[in-house]
Write a structure and sequence with these properties.
Helix content of chain B: over 70%
Distance between the termini of chain A: 52 Å
CATH class of chain B: Mainly Alpha
Radius of gyration of chain B: 24 Å
Number of helices of chain B: 12
Number of strands of chain B: 0
Strand content of chain B: under 5%
Largest sheet of chain B: none
Distance between the termini of chain B: 14 Å
CATH architecture of chain B: Orthogonal Bundle
Oligomer: heterodimer
Mean pLDDT of chain A: 90
Radius of gyration of chain A: 26 Å
Order of helices and strands of chain B: HHHHHHHHHHHH
CATH superfamily of chain B: MetI-like
Helix content of chain A: 25-40%
CATH topology of chain B: MetI-like fold
Structural class of chain A: alpha+beta
Shape of chain B: globular
Chain lengths: ~550, ~325
C-alpha cells in the first residue's frame, strides 16, 4: 500500500517541479513592464465622450475606460454569468427581497481634474440618466426605480445618499440583478451641475470628459485619433501597465488590415474569416483570437402584411401573404442550408443559431432545442400541404395565382450577408421559390426596415447582457420598435411580463427556456449564426484576455513585451 | 479693358450667387426626400424611436422642409450654418476644421501639378513621336483611365507597405500635440506626401496629355512655321510662341480642375483617412446629417464657381479678346 503512495507522491513532486519551471520561464519571458503605447484601429469615430449619450460600440468601449462604474463586470464563460468586481465601490449589500442595494464607495478616488469622488456623484449621475430633459439614451433605467402616483420617477425615494461614501438604490420591485441595473458609468457632479439639463446634449463637455477610470483623455482629433493616457495613482487605484492607448480612426477595412500587417497598429477587431486565415498562416507576429459574442444574423420574414399595415396606418394587422403562416416559415428554414454558409464563409468563426439566446449564456440556452435540419424534401411537402404548387409549370410554386416570389434585401458592403443571400437564393430556387436579392445602402436599409417596408431581409442584432428581449419580440409594435418582423404571440408577452417580476435565477431561466421553445416553434425569423468577433493583435502584446462584454476587458493587466 | 473685366467679374458673381441659391434649395429638398434618417443613432430596443423623435423636435427637424429652409437661410445670413446632428457641434466649426485639410492637399497638388506639367509638356513636345513620348503618353492614359483610389492603393503599397517610408493613413503622428511647430510641419508633410502624390499623378495624367496635344498643335500653326522658317531657334520658339498659345486652353482646364480636384480629394481623403471636407461630406451623406450636407455642398459649389472664375480671369489676362466673348 505504501509503495504506490510513495510513487504517487514522487510523481506529484516531479510534475510540480516541471510545472513550476515552466511557469518560472513564462514569467521571465513575459515579465509585466510599465510603459509602451498600444495602437488600436477603429472603424468609426467616437460619438460622445459621455455615457449619457454614447450609443455606438467603440464609444461605449472608450467611455468605459474613461468613466468607471460602481462595479466592474465581466462575463464568465464557464458559468455563463456576469461576475461583478469592486470598482468605484469597494463593497455592496443587496437586501433579501432584492428591492434595494447599498454601495460602500472607495474614499481615495479623485476625478481626473482633482476633485474628490463621493456619493453625490453617484446620486447626480442617476438623476441625469433618468431625467427626460437630459434625453439620455439610457433613460429606460428609470423603470426599475420608485415612481410617484403621477408616473414620474421619485429620485429622493429611489436614490438615497446615506453619507459621503455610502449610497442606497431603492427599486419599485424585486430586481433579479441589482448590480446590473446600477452598473452605469458615473459622472462628475461638480461638472454636470453647472450645465442646464437640456443643454448637456450639445455642450462641449461631450468632447472634454472628466472621469475616473484606468485611462483619461489626452488628445482627440475628430476622425483621426483618440489618445488615452493611463490615470495617475493619485486619482484611481487600478494602474494599467500600458502608458497610452491610441485609437486610430481608419474607416477602410483594407487600410486597417494593411496597418496591422505592417505594424502601424497593434490590434484590430472584426477581421473577416478569409483574412484571419491569411494572418494566421503568413504573419507569425500576429495572433488571431475569436470571441463568440452576442451578435447573430438572421433572415427576417415579415410576419405581417406590410402593405395593409402601412396603408391603414397600423390599424389593419393581417398575416403576410407569403410569410404569415408559421409552418411556411418553418419550411423556409428547412430549405436553407445554413451549414453551407457556415462552412463556405465563416469556417470555425461562427456557430449555428437556434434561437435569440447566444451559446455564451450557458445557463439560459435551451439545449433541448436542436438546429432545424436542412431538409428541402420535407420543406417541399409542407409547401404542397399548404397549397403551394407549381400549377403553371414555370418552375415557381404558386397559390391562387400568386407565385412565391419575393425580394431579399440586404445592406450593401457586408460580404457575409452577400454570401448568405446567394446561398438562400439558390437553395430556395431548388424548391420553386424565386428570390431577388436587393442591396440597399445602410441608412436606407434600416430606414425601410424600421418602417416595416421590407418583405424579407438579412440583418443582425446584438442581444443585451440582461437578456431583456421584449423590444425585439414583444407584440406591441408601437412600443417594441425593434420587432421589425411583426411577430405577435400573447404567450411570449406573458413571459416578458413574468420576467420583469422574476427575482430568482431559476425563475428567469425557466421563463427564458420557455421563450426559446415558443420562438423555435413559431420561427418568426430564420436564425442563421452567431458571429465571432475575430481579433488580430501583435504578439508583443501580452496577458490579453478578451471577454464578450468588451474586448478591452482588464486592459490594465495587458502589457507590451520589451 | 478694365471695364470689361469688372463687368465680367460682376456678372459672374451675380450668376454664381443665383446658381448657389438654386443649388442649395434643390439639395435641401432632395435631401429631405431621400429615404433614411439622421436620428437612427438614437434608436434602441428599449426606447424604440421615442428618443429620436424627441431630439428631432428639439432641433426643429419635425417642421415642414420649407420652414426649415427659410430658417436655415435666415441663419446663414448671420453666419450660422446650423448644428450637426451627428457630431453635436456647430457646422461652421466642422467645416473650418475640414476645409484646411482639403485646401492644403488640393492646393499643394494643384501647384505641384502645374510645376510638373509644363516642363513635362515641353519635354514631350521636344521628343514628340519618339519612344519616350509614346511611353509617357500611354502611361498617362492608363493612369487617367484608372480610378484615383487605384493610384492611392498602388502608392500605399510601394510607399508604405513595401518600403515603410510613409504612413498609410492619418494627418499627423499620434503624438503630434507634443511636437514643436517645426516638427509638426515635417510630420504633416510626411503624412501628406502620399495623398498629394495621388492627387498630382491623377490630375497630371490628363493635363499632361492635354498640354502635349495643344503644344503640338500650336507648333504646327502657320505663324510658328513662318517664324521657324525665318530662322528663330526652336527653344525660343517653344518658350515665347508655342507655349503661351498652348497655355490658354490649359488654363481653362486648370480652372475646371479646381472643381474636379475636390471630387478627387474626396476619394483620397477616404483612402488615407484624412479629416477633410470630402470625407465630412461622404460621412454626412451616409448618416443623413442634413445641416452638414448643405454646408458642404455650398462650400464645394463655391470652390467650383470660384475656380471657373479664376480660369476666366486668367484667360482674359492671356487673351484679351476672350474677355469680350466671355462678357457677351
Amino acid at each position: 500500500m505504501k509503495r504506490p503512495f510513495l510513487f504517487s507522491f514522487l510523481f506529484g513532486i516531479l510534475v510540480f517541479i516541471i510545472i513550476s519551471c515552466k511557469s518560472e520561464k513564462d514569467l521571465n519571458e513575459f515579465k509585466p513592464v510599465y510603459g509602451g503605447n498600444l495602437f488600436i484601429a477603429i472603424k468609426n469615430d467616437i460619438d460622445f465622450f459621455n455615457p449619457l449619450y454614447s450609443n455606438d460600440f467603440y464609444s461605449g468601449l472608450i467611455n468605459d475606460l474613461i468613466f468607471g462604474a460602481l462595479t466592474y463586470s465581466e462575463f464568465n464563460s464557464d458559468s455563463g454569468k456576469l461576475i461583478y468586481y469592486p470598482n468605484l465601490a469597494k463593497d455592496w449589500e443587496i437586501s433579501d427581497d432584492k428591492k434595494s442595494i447599498i454601495y460602500f464607495l472607495k474614499t481615495n478616488l479623485k476625478w481626473s481634474d482633482g476633485v474628490k469622488f463621493s456619493s453625490k456623484d453617484v446620486y447626480y449621475s442617476y438623476i441625469l440618466y433618468t431625467n427626460p430633459e437630459v434625453m439620455s439614451v439610457r433613460q429606460d433605467v428609470e423603470r426599475f426605480f420608485i415612481h410617484d402616483v403621477d408616473g414620474k420617477l421619485n429620485p429622493y425615494k429611489s436614490f438615497q445618499i446615506l453619507n459621503d461614501s455610502t449610497i442606497k438604490f431603492n427599486f419599485s420591485f424585486s430586481v433579479e440583478d441589482p448590480l446590473f441595473v446600477t452598473g452605469l458609468p458615473i459622472l462628475p457632479e461638480h461638472i454636470f451641475i453647472k450645465i442646464q439639463k437640456d443643454k448637456i446634449l450639445t455642450d462641449e463637455i461631450n468632447t472634454k470628459p472628466v472621469g475616473i477610470g484606468p485611462f483619461k483623455l489626452e488628445n482627440y482629433l475628430r476622425q483621426q485619433q483618440i489618445v488615452l493616457v493611463r490615470n495617475d495613482s493619485a486619482y484611481y487605484d487600478r494602474i494599467p501597465f500600458i502608458e497610452k492607448l491610441v485609437f486610430k480612426v481608419v474607416p477602410d477595412y483594407n487600410s486597417r488590415l494593411n496597418q496591422l500587417k505592417n505594424g502601424e497598429i497593434d490590434l484590430m477587431t472584426d477581421i473577416r474569416p478569409e483574412d484571419a486565415e491569411i494572418l494566421k498562416n503568413k504573419f507569425n507576429y500576429i495572433r488571431i483570437e475569436a470571441i463568440t459574442g452576442r451578435d447573430y444574423d438572421y433572415i427576417g420574414w415579415n410576419n405581417l402584411d406590410n402593405y395593409a399595415l402601412s396603408k391603414s396606418k397600423f390599424k389593419i394587422i393581417k398575416p403576410h401573404p407569403l410569410f404569415g403562416d408559421k409552418e411556411i416559415r418553418l419550411a423556409l428554414s428547412m430549405a436553407i442550408n445554413r451549414q453551407e454558409i457556415l462552412n463556405g464563409y465563416f469556417g470555425e468563426f461562427a456557430n449555428p443559431a437556434i434561437s435569440p439566446i447566444s451559446p455564451i449564456f450557458k445557463n439560459f440556452l435551451n439545449l433541448n432545442l436542436k438546429p432545424i435540419p436542412f431538409n428541402p424534401l420535407e420543406a417541399k411537402k409542407i409547401f404542397q400541404k399548404k397549397g403551394w404548387k407549381d400549377t403553371d409549370g414555370d418552375g415557381i410554386i404558386d397559390k391562387n395565382g400568386i407565385p412565391f416570389r419575393f425580394k431579399l434585401t440586404i445592406p450593401s458592403g457586408k460580404p457575409h450577408r452577400e454570401f448568405a443571400a446567394t446561398i438562400v437564393k439558390n437553395d430556395l430556387k431548388k424548391i420553386g421559390i424565386d428570390v431577388e436579392i436587393e442591396r440597399l445602402e445602410n441608412s436606407l436599409f434600416f430606414s425601410n426596415l424600421f418602417e416595416r417596408k421590407l418583405d424579407a431581409w438579412i440583418a443582425g442584432w446584438t442581444i443585451p447582457l440582461d437578456l431583456d428581449l421584449e423590444g425585439f419580440w414583444g407584440s406591441d409594435l408601437n412600443k417594441n420598435f425593434f420587432n421589425v418582423c411583426g411577430y405577435q404571440n400573447p404567450e411570449v408577452d406573458k413571459i416578458f411580463e413574468q420576467l420583469k417580476k422574476a427575482n430568482s435565477f431559476e425563475e428567469k431561466r425557466n421563463l427564458i427556456f420557455k421563450f426559446q421553445e415558443i420562438i423555435y416553434s413559431d420561427q418568426p425569423v430564420t436564425f442563421l449564426y452567431w458571429i465571432d468577433n475575430i481579433i488580430g493583435y501583435n504578439k508583443k502584446l501580452k496577458n490579453v484576455n478578451f471577454n464578450p462584454v468588451a474586448y478591452t476587458n482588464r486592459i490594465w493587466e495587458w502589457f507590451i513585451a520589451q | 479693358m478694365k471695364k470689361n473685366l469688372l463687368k465680367l467679374v460682376l456678372r459672374r458673381f451675380l450668376i454664381s450667387c443665383l446658381m448657389i441659391f438654386l443649388l442649395i434649395v434643390a439639395v435641401f429638398f432632395m435631401m429631405h426626400l431621400l429615404p433614411g434618417e439622421p436620428f437612427q443613432q438614437y434608436y434602441s430596443p428599449r426606447l424604440g424611436n421615442e428618443l429620436a423623435e424627441q431630439i428631432k423636435s428639439k432641433f426643429g427637424f419635425d417642421r415642414p422642409v420649407s420652414v426649415q429652409l427659410l430658417k436655415w437661410m435666415r441663419n446663414i445670413l448671420s453666419g450660422d450654418f446650423g448644428f450637426s446632428i451627428v457630431y453635436q457641434k456647430p457646422v461652421i466649426v466642422l467645416i473650418s476644421e475640414s476645409i484646411i485639410v482639403t485646401l492644403s492637399i488640393s492646393l499643394s497638388s494643384f501647384i505641384l501639378q502645374i510645376l510638373l506639367t509644363i516642363p513635362s509638356g515641353l519635354f514631350l513636345l521636344k521628343h514628340a513621336g519618339k519612344k519616350i513620348d509614346f511611353i509617357i503618353d500611354k502611361l498617362a492614359l492608363i493612369i487617367y483611365s484608372a480610378p484615383s483610389f487605384v493610384v492611392a492603393i498602388v502608392l500605399i503599397y510601394f510607399g508604405s507597405i513595401l518600403t515603410n517610408l510613409f504612413p498609410s493613413s492619418q494627418l499627423f503622428s499620434y503624438n503630434y500635440y507634443e511636437m514643436t511647430t517645426t516638427q509638426k510641419f515635417f510630420d504633416l508633410m510626411h503624412h501628406l506626401i502620399l495623398p498629394i502624390l495621388t492627387l498630382t499623378i491623377t490630375s497630371m495624367s490628363f493635363s499632361i496629355r492635354y498640354l502635349r496635344q495643344n503644344l503640338i498643335e500650336a507648333s504646327n500653326q502657320d505663324f510658328v512655321v513662318a517664324l521657324r522658317a525665318s530662322g528663330i531657334p526652336e527653344n525660343i520658339l517653344r518658350k515665347n510662341h508655342i507655349l503661351p498659345n498652348a497655355l490658354i486652353s490649359y488654363i481653362t482646364i486648370l480652372g475646371l480642375e479646381i472643381g474636379s480636384l475636390l471630387s478627387k480629394t474626396l476619394i483620397t481623403e477616404m483612402v488615407f483617412s484624412l479629416p477633410g471636407i470630402g470625407r465630412l461630406m461622404v460621412d454626412s451623406i451616409f448618416s443623413r446629417d442634413y445641416p452638414v450636407i448643405v454646408a458642404c455642398v455650398m462650400i464645394s459649389s463655391l470652390m467650383v464657381i470660384f475656380g471657373n472664375l479664376i480660369a476666366d480671369l486668367l484667360i482674359s489676362r492671356f487673351n484679351p479678346k476672350s474677355s469680350y466673348e466671355l462678357v457677351s
